[in-house]
Design a protein that fits this description.
Layout: H1 3-10, H2 14-34, H3 40-48, H4 68-85, H5 87-106, H6 109-120, E1 125-128, E2 137-141, E3 144-148, E4 150-154, E5 162-167, E6 175-180, E7 187-188, E8 203-206, E9 217-218, H7 229-232, H8 235-255, H9 258-261, H10 264-292, H11 298-324, H12 334-345, H13 351-364
Parallel strand pairs: 1-5
Antiparallel strand pairs: 2-3, 4-8, 5-6, 6-9, 7-8
Helix pairs in contact: 2-3, 2-4, 4-5, 4-8, 4-10, 5-8, 8-10, 8-11, 8-12, 10-11, 11-12, 11-13
């Protein structure tokens, strides 16, 4: 049995699988960033290892986990490891996993069967919810429902196979629609001129004219916003960010000269970076477990985790620059690439609102967990 079949049928341990892929993914990530270009060959490596279907619904060939906790811990390892190799690739992989979860929760048997066929072809999915005003609408055209509008910051536009998008009907809550994501004539990447996360190709994608049918309409109105899944699911992107922070810490250690290692001040800075990184890891892990349990405080915990990971990333970026000096800013240095990627990726929407809402929950009760309450 070849390695690909073994990976897909038996699902090798995710840490072992990604450790073997890591050097190649790092090299490809540097090339994709320099071009920049969509990381099709890196995604192909993930697919060859079976990682693109590992977290799919079981009906579509996904791994059968013992419970939701085991799945989330396994997924956390995968997201961290991919993010550690290349944050742009990690963002794409995280979007793919998000789509798989939506298809698992809300997909019909026919849609999951179609998903299995598409995954067998090595295709990847995304989830696009951001849009310029007035947004993507579902309009009536001679009795047929059609989409009108475009998605912005559409990660993987033009390169993914499919995307699950949000669309708003004339009345009622927004709906989910599965659309092809690889049409070049619908893709506009001209506005994606950024210092970091360049290979994600997060441009604009026009969905106007695409027909909405029973086959590509996913779930029921309001499913995308269903809580706690919607907000608690933020733990997944924090896991990718964590991987980037871990990579930056490792690169900083490797870059430290003997003189730096002999300098107590530099060692203190390195220790601070270790603490920040590992603290973020503890919060992401707990957020993943709370999400798996559909815990009453999963939302509050995910919201605070976003801030913890952001703070850790900002701190480790500064500490890395102070430890390594001008080397951290040279083009072609891995420390520079990770820093550029993290600087953009950490800019998630509404950080102050998320932290404020979490604080409200903690003011009401200690949301850390039963058995260790402070109030």
């Amino acid at each position: 049995m070849n390695a690909r079949k073994k990976a897909i049928q038996g699902f090798l341990p995710v840490r072992e699988t990604l450790a073997a892929l890591h050097p190649r993914l790092v090299t490809l990530g540097e090339r994709h960033d320099a071009a920049p270009r969509f990381p099709a060959d890196a995604l192909a490596l993930l697919a060859q290892a079976g990682l693109h279907l590992r977290y799919a619904p079981e009906a579509a060939g996904g791994q059968a986990f013992s419970d939701a906790r085991a799945e989330n811990l396994d997924l956390m390892d995968a997201l961290r490891a991919v993010g550690r190799a290349d944050l742009s690739l990690g963002r794409l992989f995280e979007g793919h996993v998000n789509a798989l979860k939506l298809l698992d929760w809300y997909g019909s048997s026919a849609q999951q069967a179609q998903l299995a066929e598409n995954l067998a072809r090595g295709l990847f999915y995304g989830v696009w919810a951001t849009e310029p005003p007035p947004g993507v609408l579902i309009v009536q055209d001679a009795g047929i429902e059609k989409l009108e509008g475009a998605k912005a910051f559409a990660t993987g536009a033009g390169g993914l196979g499919f995307a699950v998008i949000t669309a708003r009907p004339a009345e009622g809550r927004r709906r989910l629609v599965i659309v092809p994501a690889d049409h070049a004539d619908r893709t506009d990447l001209s506005g994606w001129r950024v210092r970091g996360m360049r290979a994600t190709g997060s441009g604009t994608y026009d969905v106007s004219g695409l027909v909405v049918t029973d086959g590509n309409s996913l779930g029921h109105p309001g499913d995308y916003d269903r809580e706690p899944r919607f907000t608690a699911g933020a733990w997944r992107f924090t896991a990718v960010q964590l991987g980037g922070i871990e990579a930056l810490l490792a690169e900083t250690r490797a870059a430290m000269s003997e003189a730096a290692r002999g300098d107590p001040l530099q060692r203190v800075r390195f220790a601070d970076a270790v603490v920040a990184t590992r603290t973020a890891g503890l919060w992401v892990r707990e957020a993943a477990l709370r999400a798996a349990d559909d815990h009453d405080d999963a939302i509050a915990f995910a919201r605070l985790t976003r801030g913890v990971v952001e703070r850790a990333g900002l701190d480790v970026m500064e500490l890395a620059a102070r430890i390594t000096g001008t080397r951290s800013a040279f083009d072609g240095q891995r420390i520079d690439k990770i820093t550029r990627d993290l600087s953009l990726y950490l800019r998630q929407a509404g950080p102050d609102y998320a932290r404020d809402q979490a604080a409200i929950a903690w003011l009401d009760h200690d949301a850390w967990g039963e058995g260790d309450l402070l109030w």
